Amino acid sequence: MRLKHIALSVLPAAAVVTAMACYSDPVYPGNQLLGTFQFEARLDPANTTCDAAMPEFAQLDDGGVFRFEGTFSKNDDGGAGWFTVQGFDREAKYEGQLVDSALRATAPRASCGTGCKDSQIEESLKVTIFSDSQARVLNRDCNAFDGGVPDGSPPAPTENGYDVSLACGSLTDVFLPGSCTCTPATCKTAYKVQGVRRD
């Protein structure tokens, strides 16, 4: 099960079955749905040590981009949170406008040899989410985001759903060899991400 990127599609078999069974009527964890976003991840060569042309690391288009979709949800008491990709609910930490979702999973790599069973990938998605008014200040473009929070009301629940329309940040994958002999042994791919709410 592979879209454009290995880590975002590494799912336990049970999660794949559940995702396919519920595809037409998704149910997200928590009692506060923030929204589903269409993401573009652009390779950040300065912070990438893997050979990004190798198929197990990413499948990029000619512009060095891959696309994926994800949904933010959480409990309104400020406790648990999630980021759901392809029906798989990853844990996520929500602190103000910052969202951090990390995942570690077994990920076979061709460069580790056919007998390798325990090579892994450690992925971290870190984004800042913006309300519609803040997104307008940024012209709905993450290139205008300099790390400071723009003017406007912060993301919050409203009568018409959660007011959040843009997510800006980074996606980092660290490939670990486990007990295998891999070439390279450990390396990292880094991406700059922009997510636009689609619903």
Notes on the protein architecture:
- The chain is mostly beta strands.
- The protein has one domain (32-197).
- It has two helices and eleven strands, in the order H-E-E-E-E-E-E-E-H-E-E-E-E.
- Strand 8 (156-158) and strand 9 form a beta hairpin.
- The protein is globular.
- The relative contact order is 0.22.
Number of strands: 11
Give the strand order, joined by hyphens, for the main sheet. Answer: 4-3-2-1-11-10-7-6-5
The separation of the N and C termini measures: 24 Å
Largest sheet: 9 strands, antiparallel
Q: Supply the helix-strand structural class.
A: mainly beta
Rg over alpha carbons: 17 Å
List the helices and strands in order.
Answer: HEEEEEEEHEEEE
Q: What gross morphology would you assign?
A: globular
Number of domains: 1
Unreliable runs:
1-6, 9-22
Average pLDDT, to the nearest integer?
Answer: 85
DSSP helix fraction: under 10%
Q: How many helices?
A: 2
- Portion in beta strands: 35-45%
Signal peptide: 1-21
Protein name: Lipoprotein
Keywords: Signal
SSE inventory with pairings:
Blueprint: H1 13-21, E1 32-43, E2 65-74, E3 81-85, E4 88-91, E5 93-95, E6 98-106, E7 120-130, H2 132-137, E8 156-158, E9 161-163, E10 166-176, E11 187-197
Antiparallel strand pairs: 1-2, 1-11, 2-3, 3-4, 5-6, 6-7, 7-10, 8-9, 10-11
